[in-house]
Specification:
By secondary structure, the chain is mainly beta. 9% of the residues lie in helices and 34% in strands. Strands 2-1-7-3-4 form a five-stranded mixed sheet, covered by helices on one side.
């Protein structure tokens, strides 16, 4: 199986990220990204786990809808089903956005 890469963009920073298991649930991929360390030994993306009010922040991936040029949130679960990159038609080399959950809680 060939390597699978995503370009992940967060706050004006885009990083090419190797995805070890593209079939993993999206929630697992976000968790892995939260702890990912760059070659300099620091976190690749330093994203807060709580907002200004102290409420926990969840993060999702988003992908641009080419028809309307809007970022569509890729929900990690729909009903009881974990969603994967394939469920959102994300392919090797695609650009995805890391974004905080707009609705806390």
């Amino acid at each position: 199986m060939e390597d699978f890469f995503l370009d992940i963009s967060y706050k004006n920073k885009t990083v090419r990220f190797k995805v070890v298991n593209p079939e993993a649930p999206l929630s697992t991929l976000v968790d892995n990204l939260r702890h990912a360390i760059g070659e300099d030994g620091r976190l690749i993306f330093d994203f807060p786990s709580i907002d200004q009010t102290g409420a926990p922040l969840d993060y999702f991936f988003g992908k641009e809808d080419p028809q309307v040029h809007e970022i569509r949130v890729m929900r990690p679960r729909i009903g009881k089903e974990d969603q994967t990159l394939a469920d959102y038609n994300v392919h090797n080399g695609d650009l995805v956005y890391l974004m905080p959950d707009p609705i806390p809680g």
